[in-house]
Design brief:
The chain is α+β, with helices and mostly antiparallel strands. It folds into two domains: about 1-65, Orthogonal Bundle (434 Repressor (Amino-terminal Domain)), CATH 1.10.260; about 80-110, no CATH class. It is about 55% helix and about 15% strand. It contains six helices and two strands; from the N terminus they run H-H-H-H-H-E-E-H. A two-stranded antiparallel ribbon has the order 1-2. A hairpin with a 5-residue loop joins strand 1 (about 80-85) and strand 2 (about 90-95). The longest helix is centred in the first third of the chain and has 15 residues, at about 1-15. It is globular and about 40 Å long.
């Protein structure tokens, strides 16, 4: 999945005609966020940061970070991610999706 994010980020930068530094300045975020997404496929934890980067790159937020577009007429779809630290030292991530969105995610993960 991280390779796909790297490609989407590179494509979005190329389409926008912006460098990583220019995009970071316009989004008012550290260049590290864009650099890590482009080079490592790393997704920023902060939704506001993701939203600002997507807006500057004129991309659908869902497409840029997760690889699918929210094509619903209303913004009623919900994506909730919960991250919990477990006693074993591992991290548990729970994702709550509506059924249509869940099906798209499962298909992406299978590919």
């Amino acid at each position: 999945m991280s390779n796909l994010l790297k490609e989407r980020m590179k494509n979005a930068l190329a389409r926008s005609g912006l460098t990583q530094i220019e995009a970071a300045r316009l989004a008012k975020v550290s260049r590290d966020y864009i650099h890590k997404a482009t080079q490592r496929g790393s997704v920023p934890n902060d939704k506001a940061v993701r939203d600002r980067i997507s807006k500057v790159l004129k991309c659908d937020n869902s497409w840029l970070w997760w690889g699918f577009e929210d094509d619903s007429p209303s913004k009623s779809r919900k994506l909730k991610i919960h991250k919990d630290a477990l006693a074993s030292g591992k991290t548990k991530i729970t994702i709550e999706l509506d059924s249509d969105l869940a099906e798209k995610v499962v298909n992406i993960l299978k590919s």
